Queue: 4 jobs
Job 1
Amino acid sequence: MAYGFILPSLLVFAVFMFYPLFYTIYLSFFDWNMIKPVKAFIGIQNYIALFQDPLTYTVMKNTLAYIAILLLLNWVAPYILAFILSFVIKRGRGFYKSMFFLPSVISLVVGSILYLWILNPVSGPVAIIAKFFGITIPIWSKTQGLVIVVLSIITTWKVFGYNFIVLFGGIGGVPQEVIEAARLDKVPLHRIFLDIVVPMSSATGIYVFVMTIVQGLQYVFTPIKVITQGGPDNASSNAIYNVYQEAFTLYHTGYASAFAIVTMALFVTLLIFEFKYVEKGIHYEN
Amino acid sequence: MRIDKEIKWHVLLCCALVLSLTPIVFALSSSFKELSEAYSNVFGLPQHPTLSNYVQVFSRLPLVQITTNTFLIAVAVTIFKTVTSTLAAYSFVYFDFRGKNVLYFILISTIFIPFTVTMIPNYLTISQLGFRNNIIGVILPQLSDATGIFLIRQAMRTVPRSLIEAARLDQTGHLRILGNIVFPLVKPAVVSSGIMFFINSWNEYVWPVLILKDKANFTLPLALQLFISSEGGTDFTIAMAVSVITMIIPLVLYIIFQRYIITTFTSSGIKG
């Protein structure tokens, strides 16, 4: 009976999650282009090629840059906002919660096209305001470094609200009296946040930390794909986009599979980190 | 004194809100402008409101078909995900069976598997089944959802076990218990998961872009992509009209169900 209830989900996961996972590992040991009838076994050649390709290092460097910016904008910033809404202000909580969440229900393709126009270096509203102050907006989609920042901001527009709501829930577990007492003792706000709130909501904090990295890198795929296609000169490509590019533009199926597995290995490391701390936190809270 | 301090924060928060909501207002306002006005009157509301952008969209693209596709996919995905997640969550909470915790752990861990790891084999599977360039190919891999199982399970854990045990003593079947006792108590979590399934499917881009090739089979985000060029392009007011059409349904759903949604996701934070 129990299995009967789980079976539908299990079937879907087996066919479209677990089987593909193992098949991708299998494919990573072959030279194949999805069309050829025969896959050529080449052992760990794809992995060796991956570590020898300078593009891998560019892409991984970009991936780290994305991670740093996404963490700042989608983990640190919403954490602080959730703290302010929970303990610093008294009125308008419900209003702010629903308004900050609102952009997360909108498609990232819509987000990409809106920002493409708002940040248009010639005729966009931001350029017009900047021109008033005598500043010219660089052509960000063609500027190394800056392109990663802008694509991260576009992604933030969608992800911020969701992370904020989850963190708000986590902070809700911190007793109000503790904060009140600290405020009566005139403890500065940033100390209350860092010394009381963050440690007492660490389970949710680490969960959002990991999700910001794992899902953030996948979310940022959409603006990369629709705005820059990884350019200029691979300056905006990340580990996720690069796999897509290798698999569906260049048809390096085996190599793309190897790259996907290496990316996942990085994520699994994070996952172990997450469960080691978060699951402990959950048991503690229960 | 206290009030003054609070006002400072409200000003800051409202500035942040204006920044995040302005793009939506701009899209709405520009979609009713002629292209020339969009360039001459960037910030103001439309002086000569026009529907010509919307009319042009419908003449250039099979938009009725595209919206129908998006809707059909979202409805199918929502129904399947909601049913399979609710059933799975129920069995994780109220049944005891061997390997339960391990299985739950494995299913939930899939949240951390990036789509790049599964997309090549899934693409091959869908191709072999002959569902490439077909909305069924978009729907098939999305018939269950780990986050849904997680959220609904969290809600079900708050339903007292004694209620279920009493019903079992009366020989009530599990499906009936789920429908008559558990479901009414966890309805907010199920409804908001369902709404999020719908919205996420409506907005989905990565998988449909791999599977759907002909414009007639496109979903709204794919159609919108046709209007993107890195220079902004001459179709920009039309792109705004397509943007508005794409975001209107999720926004309306969110406005109707926001209380459910906010509560469910806030509580997901409490439990990690």
Note: DSSP finds 13 helices and no strands in chain B.
Job 2
Amino acid sequence: MNTDPKPLWKPHAAGALLGLGLLLTFVLTGHGLGGSGFTTALSATGADLVAPGMTAGNAYLGPMVADGSNPLDAWITWQVIGVAIGALLGAVSARRFRFNVDGPTRLKNPGRLAMALLGGIIAGFGARVSLGCTSGLGLSGAATLATAGFLFLGGFFVSGAIFGLLTRRLWA
Amino acid sequence: MTFPLGFNGALSGLLCGLIFGFALERAGFASACKLTAQLRFRDWAVFNVMFTAILVAAFGMYILELAGLLSKDAVYVPTTYLWATLLGGVGVGAGMAIGGYCPGTSVVGFMSGKLDGLVFFVGIIIGTWVFAGAYDWLLPMLEAAPGPEAQTLSQLLHVPDMVVLLALTAVAAVVGWFTARTPAASCPVPGESS
């Protein structure tokens, strides 16, 4: 039995499928794809479970859970479940599914996981400042030719390149 | 019949997300190494995939509008807040360089078995709580220097949409041509040809 992973698609082929999926999303819903809308809803729900009093009093998260409303009852929740299923189907069908820890190749696993946690905290904070992440603002915003999408992408790539070059010695 | 259809239910979300997640996986974006290799200029897949997708969707919407099938006013266009939009992008870019993913690709990474994808995802939740804690203090910056509502590049530059579309196509074509011979990053991505 052949167990070799199947090749990745060429960037332009994968990009074309992604673009057609994004176009379908606009045609069906009137808005694009997203990511951080879901993590924000999950953060509000999680905070409400752990510390309901503090959450209700918070100016940002409070309105999301006011009067017993459930921020996870939204289109974006289904879309992220779809992303998870699509990614799993993709990884399994290409024989690419492996339990491991990616990340800087010169660090051991605890160091890699610490970097992932720190990066996640910074990205999560940043995506709330800009009201969207690489998917919602960068990809979907730019597809509508929004200035916000391109301004976000400019900041993303310049800062990413600076921190990418600063951390390049961590990668073999 | 004109689009958008206003299908904002579970099936529409699942279908759109499924295509999104599958395309990101096939591009190799389950790998923190491959994603950050773009930021070290060792691999150009992130740029090429994103720009191709933006152009396909933007041209598609342009043609549907011309044909009278898509109502432009019903398509959501985000509004710029100069400092918030820019600094948020700076944060998400730094977060990807340091932690390997962005919110969407961390889900794709974890569903391919990457435990750091899950840890990054947990980090996003913590980062959102930190933001919520600092919200009152941040608010003046978040709302500073708003642009015109739902402004597009074409409106900013006073040119037709087609001019912006052709300029973006030219950028994508030039970068695509120059990077076509850049070997893909030497990342442990199963299925990466070297």
Note: Chain A has two domains: 1-99, 102-172.
Job 3
Amino acid sequence: MNVFDYLLDGANWLGGGKILDLLLQHLFYTAAAVLLAAVVAIPLGILIGHTGRGSFLVIGLSNAARAIPSLGLLFLAVMLLGTGAGNIVVVLAILALPAILTATAAGISGADPEAVHAGRALGMTERQVVSQVEWPLALPLVVSGLRSATLQVVATATVAAFASGGGLGQLLTSGQAQSDYPQMFAGAVLIAALAILFDLLLGLAGWGVARRARPRSRTAVGAAVAPA
Amino acid sequence: MNLRRTVTVAGVSLASLLLAACGGAGTDPLAEPSAGGSASSGGGGQPVIVGSAAFTESTVVAELYAQAIAAKGVQASTKLNIGSREVYLKALEDGSISVVPEYTGNLLLNYDQDATATTAEEVEQALPEALPADFKLGSPSAAVDQDVYVVTKEYSEANGVTSLADLEKVAADAILGGPSELATRAYGPEGLDKVYGAKIKQFKPYDSAAVRARDLNDGKIQIGEFFSTEAVIPDNGYVVLEDPQAMILPQNVVPLYRAEVASDATVTGAVDAVQQALTTEELTALNKQVDVDKADPDDVAKEWLTSKGLA
């Protein structure tokens, strides 16, 4: 038995419930969950970071949320609401939320106070302070929050298979049920590869964001800032 | 620095993925067997390890066997929820378990894909020849746990479906939900097509019977595949489809021993007493106590054995 058998057999790639189909489902769950989490967590993180209020909530929430077992939550959702892509996405979004929320709040509240004061001194409104000073400074941290959230979700999206939602986790559960270890291996390799790929892409994006943030601030403030 | 972080993160993702994969079926089938014992020392108080597949009934029957054996003074332990047939048969082969509750028909098919036996008697006759030399079969029980195809009462009435032979007319629009391994079983989607000419639209694998029942009730699947002794069938009033062509083999509960354990008359005597007392109805009731009433299989088995005077 060669562990690569399942991966290398072209017949396992195309068609319903086959590798490509499951891969696309997995990507969909990951993208939708992170997007949903970001839509909720980024504005909330900005609000908390900017006002400084409710940060105890952020810490408490994120610590508590990390203890929620995704599989248990998924079964609860299925028993209460039935199966479906929507429930899986929501469960995964709950997993992704804390990382993005804490990173955003920390990024905004940690924005250089001198820059913020300078913005206010220039007559910026609160809205402008947030959008033109705090947000650009927080962006690298927000991206790193998105990065760790994405990694958690891409690995945990395997639970979708338990709710009959497909995804690459199906290769693991079906492989285990049939004692088809090459199939399980295929699932494990693809999920790991996906996680590494996402990490590299988001790492690259984070690097790009951090790099873009720096020269702009240099031109804005002038030559007084020493080059990095 | 960045690379190291990447590697760490990838490692963590892989670890959590493995955890997720193992969390599903309980015991990790890939784990090394804890107790050895492939060396046979020929009966006489040798400790017995009763294994079970990863579903309620198998667990309960394994508990019945183990406690009945222990009541006769032989040291007996359990190793429950090992996995599907492929996995626990491997465990029986390497001696990490010594006996496991099995089902006659599926056991025969596992060793002889082209078996021609269809009735319970034919299966019992064909089995001993089909089994590997170091496995021995005990006496089959009257209790039968068959794979059954079911539909909801509403679906049955709306489409006139009461038998697998009726599936032909609805198959093109029907999604079938069953355990993952059904996909490769002889009586799975392929069998429906070959025996009944029913080419179903899609097969959806489910690892949880509760999720499967939920989707059947919600109309997300039209045909469900369950075990005949699963409590979800009477509880939801599902219509069990008849099998006029005997595509699904009879599945009497039967103990499958390692040969050296089967030669121990105390052990087989204890197990046979359980086999004789067990019926399909009693088995369904035992399952229900565990699945629905959330009782411990251990306690359920103890109570039943006491009521039958077997422990």
Note: Residues 181-221 of chain A form the longest helix (41 residues).
Job 4
Amino acid sequence: MSAASVIELSEVTKVHRSGDLTVAALGGIGFAVREGEFVAIMGASGSGKTTLLGILGLLDRPTSGSYRLVGTEVAKLDETARAHIRGRRIGFVFQAYNLIPRATAFKNVELPLVYSGVRASDRRARVLEALAEVGLSERVRHVPTQLSGGEQQRVAIARALVVRPSVVLADEPTGNLDSTSEGDVLAILERLNGQGATIVMVTHSNEVAEHASRIVRLADGLVVADEALERPPLALEVAR
Amino acid sequence: MRMLVENWRIALWALRANWFRAVLTAVGVVIGVASLVAVTAVSAGAQQEVADSIRRLGANVVLVDGEFINIGTGQSATERTITPEDVDAISKLPMVTAIAPHQEMESLTISAGRFKATTLLFGITETYGDIYNQAAGAGRLISSSDVSFGRSVMVLGLVQRRKLFPGQNPIGRTVRVGTREFEVVGIQARKGTLNDENLDFRSFVPLPIVTRALLGGGANIKSVGVRIRSEAEIEPAMDAISELLRRQHRLPDSYADDFSTEDQADFVKAAQSATTTFRVLTFALGGIALLVGGIGIMNMMLVSVRERTREIGIRKSVGADPWKVQAQFLIEALVLSTLGGIAGLLVGIGATGLTGTLAGWQVAISLPSLLVSFSAAVSVGLFFGYYPARRAARLDPIAALRYE
């Protein structure tokens, strides 16, 4: 409990405007995520969990409130500054994988390194290492259409990891997967978390959420529950 | 700097992924650049032809001709009203740098053995070759001693040379005009045609031969070629010559000139201004073709931005800032127009060569015109690529990621 906060939100609101209609998606949210945590954000659709993830990932700006990422206030930054922070501090895993079609697994994983200005000569080893970490060393030259859904999601996880981000944000990462692939992906996330990665995962499935170390429940744009989970130690599973 | 290289890589990769559409789009630019290149080459060729014509005519040459005039109720006995004294007086005018009196005889039949040919026979002096840019293709031209001794020598035109001495060396052979015999001393080098007259149809003998022996009578002549110091002095020189000749001929004020003066390059200059209009029009057409090509690029880039909205969202989510996204699409447009421009140069050069060969036009491809056409293509790419690139850069990352 003494680890530093990676994410600190306080009084964050988000109002969506479309024409005259204004919809309050977040109504003043405050919570913190410490280094090494695996947080599941749960809630019914319309509860604001996707909006929250967009703000956490700096894809979107809160209407009001404060957001400190690794100690730095980022709520008011412009798109260019946010893009640079996204590239270095945040790794995304989306439900729909969101790989660039026609680009190989290698190219997809390399992309964040390209945008954050890592030398081409330094990139190769890091990309291969990230792909090895998700068990895809044999799929480096494959394009997304040649990969199964589970494999595509693992490429996406490798892409999220490759910059060694402060936090991995996963939006329903197993939503499009069959149960075998779901197990694979969750096992990888758990293992990464075990190695120290901070993960925030949005899900509507209790089963999936149970893999996290803490569950934050949203309803109508507010945090309604925040509970730590007693996660079965990894050693137990190995012994079984 | 490194990012610039990366942007090029990303853009080239994106184009390769959709190469067929890229090629089709670039075709517009190819046509635009190719037509610019061809049009400038053809019109530059036309201009060069005009310059060549002026060179054949002799630069800054005024032709003074003797004319028939009405005197009272009758007519002057001859058009050969230019006297040796007139020639002498004209040559002393300050703006005159050289003078070439000559007398022509039309449709004269000349023969060698059993071969016959007609010619336009020119009696000339040694200055003629200089003023009218005459050169010997073989042998020599009419010399000053030919003129002063009244030698019976002839310089043949290419047409007569072919008709009278097919497959033989004519130098030193004899040509007959009526009962007179001439020694062939030279062949005039090819002059080509000018204003529908075949200049290679002319043959040349010393002036006294024509005036005294062939036409009989005095030393008066019909024509004098006068070279003026500069183009700007042509008009004043023509006025000065008129004034001088009227005084020489003692013409009363009521009499018309018994001579005429004419700037030989007048019609060439008229042709030149006509081709200038043509040049401007066709260049505008090439420019419009390039413009259409540019709109094609913009269209493709807009479609491309829309199709790749999700990809743009992905790139933004992994750290691409607006500037980098804009650079990527701008470079794509630039690569399209650059490759289109290069292909256009090649096609244009090929089409120009083909036009020159098939239509028999004179064409001239110049490096500056190639550079201008190419940079026009690149500018078109930049200009028409800017708006789509800007649009891509401004996409909202969340909306882009959700785009289906």
Note: The two ends of chain A are 29 Å apart (CA to CA).
